[in-house]
Design goal:
The strands form 6 sheets. Strands 8-7-18-19-20-17-21 form a 7-stranded mixed sheet. Strands 12-2-1-16-22 form a 5-stranded parallel sheet. Helix content is 32%, strand content 23%. It is α+β, with helices and mostly antiparallel strands.
């Protein structure tokens, strides 16, 4: 392989940018890295805007501080690498609530994404089925099996635990439903213990014991100044050439690498590179792979996505509970599925004038028709529903913003990990210099996406015959 290498990163979200940073750090000196972003904005779902004169997240809000092993998460490690560790801040209010029968009840502790490890602690919110979680003398899940989260929890704890606890938790993260989402992909720690334990309570407790957390240690963090600072710092550290408004429309194998067709059909640019990181959602990736790897494209492109809208309002001195926010079960019949009280949850955002920033999430998988409403209609409905849940009329907002994320959240059906594993194995065998990265493949959340991008970069280095510096 000639030097210097030329590597294209297709997709300027955090997975693609993490890949670019890792390439810069570990690929041979002089490696040419180019990031192609179809839109005019880098960062993907990390987007810090401004509302009422202060930074506000219009996308992802925070990241996990620890990974499943208890070590610092990939997001924290990246922030440290980029010189941003001192900017990490944590929630000052951690208690959230559920909307149950129109009112707010504290989310009970001791659950794993809503799945209880102590049935008595959740009884005030959801009544578990009596005596259903019995020891049948064998593990809950077979060694190679995957099931939906909802199917497993319903069979052990009954409908109410799913509908009032697990569904809203998963809905807040994936905008999906527990009955449709893969246990292995969305709750891997529980999937591992369910292959050993004979009861679901036992599996939850084993998963919690496998990832102990020091008392008082923060679970989440964000960056003072906004998560877009992570994006900007990653671009700088990568030293990559960034092409915005540059849609990659075709990927063609050449004798020595890959040819990218970039830009409008009337005036395309052809770019030759040695390797490609595809850090784009599943369907765009499938379109690019349709020519060189049609079977892989078919497997990857089957993944479906949910769309959401985030409605943010600045409210003058509202009466808000001392909560970080709340989740809404779909059985409550509300448009909103979650709300965050930004200026309560994050102490660094509190204002001396009492202006509060509240954000609500709208949109569940399969209910995209609700998102066809105009911005003003969405905002009015959110304001009305928030007032009803809080039991007091909220003041009129002095500023607001509606951010729509079309096709934003992957819906991992049972078997996703096996399908993806087969697709990646086939891609490595046929075209080892093309690697997939991002939420569509490895899971949602900033740390997972960062790790996915970094792993893709390391695969590229290996495929090109290099060794990490």
């Amino acid at each position: 392989m000639r030097q210097p290498w030329r590597v294209a990163v297709v997709g300027g979200g955090i997975a693609g940018l993490a890949a670019a940073v890792r390439l810069r750090d570990r690929a041979p000196a002089g490696t040419e890295i180019t990031v192609y972003e179809q839109s005019g904005v880098l960062g993907g779902k990390l987007r810090t805007g401004e509302l009422a004169g202060q930074p506000v997240e219009f996308g992802a809000e925070s990241f996990l501080m620890r990974d499943p092993t208890g070590a610092e998460s990939a997001a924290v490690a990246l922030a440290r690498r980029l010189g941003l560790a001192e900017k990490i801040v944590h929630p000052t209010v951690g208690q959230a609530a559920l909307v149950i029968d129109g009112g707010l009840r504290p989310i009970p502790g001791g659950t794993l994404v809503g799945v209880p490890g102590d049935l008595e602690r959740v009884a005030a919110v959801a009544r578990p089925a009596a005596d259903a979680d019995t020891d049948g003398g064998r593990p809950l899940v077979g060694p190679d099996a995957d099931v939906s989260v909802g199917a497993l929890v319903r069979s052990r704890f009954g409908n109410e635990v799913v509908e009032r606890l697990v569904d809203p938790m998963l809905g807040g993260v994936y905008a999906g439903r527990a009955d449709d989402l893969s246990l292995v992909t969305t709750m891997p720690a529980l999937a591992r213990t369910a292959r050993v334990e004979h009861t679901l309570v036992g599996a939850v407790r084993a998963a919690q014991a496998a990832a102990p957390r020091a008392p008082g240690a923060p679970v989440f963090g964000t960056l003072a100044g906004g998560l877009s600072t992570l994006v900007e710092a990653a671009v700088t550290a990568s030293g990559a050439t960034v092409r915005r408004d540059a849609a990659v429309r075709e990927l063609t194998a050449t004798g020595t690498g890959w040819r990218l067709t970039v830009g409008p059909t009337r005036d395309p640019k052809l770019v030759d590179v040695d390797a490609v990181v595809l850090a784009v959602p599943a369907r765009p990736a499938a379109r690019l792979l349709a020519g060189p790897a049609p079977a892989v494209a078919a497997g990857v492109g089957a993944l479906d996505y949910a769309s959401v809208a985030l409605v943010t309002m600045a409210l003058p001195q509202p009466r808000l509970p001392e909560l970080s926010g709340f989740l809404v079960p779909s059985t409550e019949g509300l448009l909103i599925k979650a709300a965050t009280f930004f200026t309560t949850k994050w102490g660094h955002l509190r204002r001396p004038d009492g202006l509060a920033v509240v954000r609500a999430s709208v949109g569940r998988y399969g209910e995209e028709a609700h998102l066809q409403r105009p911005d003003a209609d969405l905002a009015a409905t959110v304001h009305r529903e928030l007032s009803a849940v809080l039991g007091t009329p909220l003041p009129a907002p002095v500023d607001g913003h509606v951010q729509r994320w079309g096709g934003a959240l992957p819906q991992y059906a049972p078997g996703h990990a096996d399908r993806l594993g087969a697709a990646r194995t086939a891609l490595r065998a046929a075209h080892p210099t093309v690697v997939l990265a991002g939420a569509g493949y490895d899971g949602v959340g900033i740390p997972v996406c960062v790790r996915s991008g970094e792993t893709a970069a390391e695969e590229i280095i290996t495929a090109l015959g290099g060794s990490a510096r």
